[in-house]
Amino acid sequence: MQLLRNLSTASLAAVIGLILAAGIATTASAKVKPSDEPPPPKAAPVPNVNAAPLQPLAGATIEGTPTVITGDSMMIGGRPVRLYGIAAPDLSANKGPDARVALDTLIDGQRVTCTEMDRTKDGGSIAACKIGNDDIAEKMLQQGFAAVYRSTANSTADEHALAGRYDAAETAARQKEIGLWAKPAKAMAAATDAPKSRPLIDRRVIQDWIVAAPILLIALIVILTLSWRRGSQLREHRQQMRLSTTSLLAQVLAEVLAIREAAAEQVATTAGLSQDQPIPASQLSALGLPPTLIYTANASRAHWLPRDIAVDLVQFHAAHAGIGQLLRQASHLRSETIRSALAKLVEAADLVLERGQSFLR
Asked: Which domain holds residue 105?
């Protein structure tokens, strides 16, 4: 019996040892990878991001010495820039030439710095521009040559601040009645005082008149003689002035007619082009207007002409100068912009010719 117990104990120990060995072998085999399993892919290197970021639509800075086109627009380095927040009259409108001259005088060849606020549908910039610390648009409002213009509600703190300053500048110009806000002189009302009773004539006054009568008569004769001679001289001078004025006006009108015909021909030429695109380079050389040599040479004699004709001539030649600037930038502007400006110049020339011819008749 003791032998059987010893055998059973030994058998049990052998079975337990076999089970433990099988478990260790199984565990070892589970940790070994199959020989046909593919290796893991290598990690791909991440490239450095060094591309330049896209420039935002607004907030860009434009610097340079501008060329003034109208009272609220200019060219800086071949790029059209319109002043943000204001609107000035067109060159063909009343006060339009005055507004352009005011902006040109304000800039006076100085370097400006503009912060782009928006873009036009033609791709031009709408910007707030400064000369040093002076806001150009605010100065134009203060001088009364522009009005506040806002197409949309202000959305930023800077735009709110500009709107407040621009409104204050326009209000001050309106109160001073300057520039666009100047009012025509008002006629003074006639006095309606009741007639006053006249005092009786004093005898001493009559005596004084009797004594002074011969002296006054002689003085009157001398005055009449001098007046007649002076009148003759004035009549001769007026006749000479009228002949000179007629000759000058005829020469100026001939020059205006030549410019008008050239502008009308170019309106017809550009009408067939794509109005949303710049004028083709092959046709740029054909653009141009005759110079105003006669008017420029006789500018000091312009006051001889009738006032209405003189004013029309000033506006016409201001429009001529503005279109000259546009034509030099024609490769960067829409054909419609050039054609519209030329058409307005033709209308201004027709007005000058109509009034001038009525004076020459």
From this structure: 61-181
